[in-house]
Amino acid sequence: MFEAKFQTFADSAAPALGTARLKLLRDELERRGLDGFLIPRADAHQNEYVPPCDERLAWLTGFTGSAGLALVLRDEAAIVVDGRYTLQAAAQVDTASFTVVPLAETSPERWLEKHLTAGAHFGYDPWLTTVEGEQKLRRAATAAGAVLVAVEGNPLDAVWHDRPAPPLAPVTLRDPTLAGESAPDKIARIQAALAEQKLDALVVSDPHSVAWAFNIRGGDVNFTPLALAWALIPRTGRPTLFVDGRKLSNAARDALGHVTEIAEPMLLERAVEMAAAGGATVRLDQATAPSLLAARVEAAGGKVSNGASPVALMQAAKNAAELAGMRAAHRRDGAALARFLAWFDTEAPKGALTEIDAVCALEGFRRETGELKDISFPSISGAGPNGAIVHYRVTEATNRAIRPDELFLIDSGAQYEDGTTDVTRTLFVGTASTEMRDRFTRVLKGHIAIARAVFPLGISGSQLDSFARQHLWAAGLDFDHGTGHGVGAYLSVHEGPARISKLGTVALARGMVLSNEPGYYKAGAYGIRLENLEIVVDGPAVAGAERTLLAFETLTLAPFDRRGIETALLTPDEVAWLDAYHARVRVEIGPLVDATTRVWLEAATAPLAV
Question: So where does this one cross the membrane (predicted)?
Fold first, then answer.
C-alpha cells in the first residue's frame, strides 16, 4: 500500500571492497611520502548529513554510520566509532583490514600515539578538520615523535575514480512570512554582535547559519534543506555569500544581490586573507570552521578568534513567525500521526506488519498532507529487541516482524516548509508485561517532569536533565543519551547550541525549540522512548517571584499509548497534565482527520480512569 520516497532500506556497505580500496589509498600515500592519513566522516562544514561526494569513510571502509573516522597507517588501519555504532561497524567493514576501535576504550589521538612510529609523516585534510581537531592530532603526533602534515588535495579523492560530483541543487528564497525577519535586519544584528565582541569579521562556516542569515534554503544534502555555502560578514559593510553560481536562478541572484556580494567558493580563502590583513580579528566557529581557514588568517597577519558563532544563538531563538510556522507544521504532522496510529492499531494485531511497513506507512500519511518536503532524519523503527538499539536503522537485511506482546518504537520526523518535526512513540501490540508498563510509566513521568518544568532565566539544559531521569534512577535504571536536542525551523532536526543533557551548558532562552525524549532500553528485549518537541516560553506569574521564569509549551500533538500506563504510579498532577494534553490533541487534531481516525482518536485521548 505504501512506499518510501525519502528513505531507502538497502544496506550499501561493501566490506569486500575495503581491502582493495585500502591498498589504493596506501599506494597514493606512499607516492606522496606519507606514512598515514586520517579519513573523517565529515565534509568541509562538519555537517551531520553529507552529500555522496563527501562519503569518503563509507567508500573506503563500508561503514555507513553518521559518525566515525578511519586512521590508515602503512601496516595497520583502524576505524574509531562511538557506542552507537560498534556493532554496525563490525558488520559493515572488513575486519581483516580494519580494526574496529570503540571510542569508549580509546580516542583516535591515543590510538595514534600508540601506533605512530617516530619520524613518521601523518597527513590530514585541513578542509575536513577543525582547529580543535588539528590541535589534538598535533599533540598526538608530537607525543609519538611523528610529523603532522596538512595535505593539499585529499589523497583519497585521487583514488576514488567514480566519486560523485558535488551537489548543485537550486537555492530557494525563504518566504518572508515564514522567516519573520529580513536578511538585512539579520545581518545588522550579526554585525552588532561582532562590534560588541570586538571582532572585525566572522566566517560563517555552518550552512545552517548561512541559510538562516540570508533567508535561503536548498537541497544539497538529504533530510535538511541546505545549500552548501559559506559567508564572510565584516563588522561594517556588505557581507559576501560564497556559493556555486550554478545553484542560483536569475531571480535568486537578483534578490540576494540586494543583500550581499556573491562569489564562488574557490574565492573564500583569498577573501579570508584580505579580511585578516593588518592584524584584524576574525571569528571562526570552533565547531565547524576548517583549520585551513585559521592558517590563512594567521598567514595574512590576522588574529584567529576561535569560539562560538554569534549566529547560532540568534537562529536558535525563533521569532513569532517561525513559531507560528512550527505550530502549523506540528498540527499537520499530528493529523498524519493520528492516521498512522489508528492504522497501526488495526493492522499490527494481524501479525503481518514489519518495521519497514510501518516506516513506509507513516511517510505515506505525511506525504498525503500535500506539504511534505522531506523527512527530517531516517526513521528509527524498532520492533522488540531492535527497539533497544538507540540509533537503529532498519534495512532489508534486519527488517523484523512486529509481533504480538512486544513493544514497537518509532522515532520519525518531517520537513515542511513552515517547520521541522521530530516525534517518538512506543506502541504496544497485544498485552504488555508488568515490567514493560512499569518502565513505560517511569519514562512518561520523566517526560511530564520536563514538560511541566518552571525554571529561572539563565538555567541550562544540564540543570534540567535529571528531571527526566529521577523516576528511572529511583528504580536503579537510566538511559545513556541526552534528554533533548535543539530543533531548527525548516532546518536541522539536530540544532545547537542548546540541549537538555548533562553536557548542555548553554542557557535556555525564549523561542528555543528542544526535544523532550527520555527513554529506557533493555538490551535484547525492548526499547521505550517518548518524545515531544517543546518551545521555551515565558513562565507563569508567581507572587513574590524574584527571578524571571521560563517554562515549556509542548508543540507535538500525538497521543501516548494508554496501554503502557500504570496509573497507580502517576501522581494526581501528572494525571491532570496527561489528560489536559490529550484533550488538547483531541481538540486540535480531531477536525483535521477522517471520521474513522476521529473515532480512534476519541478513545486514545479519553481521560485516564484512576
Answer: none
Last residue of a domain, one of 277, 294, 316: 316
Whether 309 and 534 have beta carbons less than 8 Å apart is answered as no
- For helices 131-144 and 291-299, angle between their N-to-C axes, nearest 10 degrees: 90
Flag whether pLDDT at 610 surpasses 90.
Answer: no
CA torsion 337-472-527-79 (nearest 10°) is 110
406 and 537 both lie in a single domain:
yes
Q: Is residue 477 part of a domain?
A: yes
Q: What would the pLDDT profile of 192-218 be if each residue is shown by its tens digit?
A: 999 999 999 999 999 999 999 999 999
Contacts of 490 (CB under 8 A, 6+ apart): 174, 178, 217, 225, 325, 373, 415, 416, 417, 418, 419, 420
Task: For 337-385, write each residue's pLDDT tens digit.
Answer: 999 999 999 999 999 999 999 999 999 999 999 999 999 999 999 999 9
Q: Which residue has the cell 539544559?
A: 461
- Report the domain count for the chain: 3
Q: Identify the domain boundary among 125, 159, 193.
A: 159
Mean pLDDT confidence for 463-481: 97
Looking at residue 372, which CATH number applies to its domain? 3.90.230.10
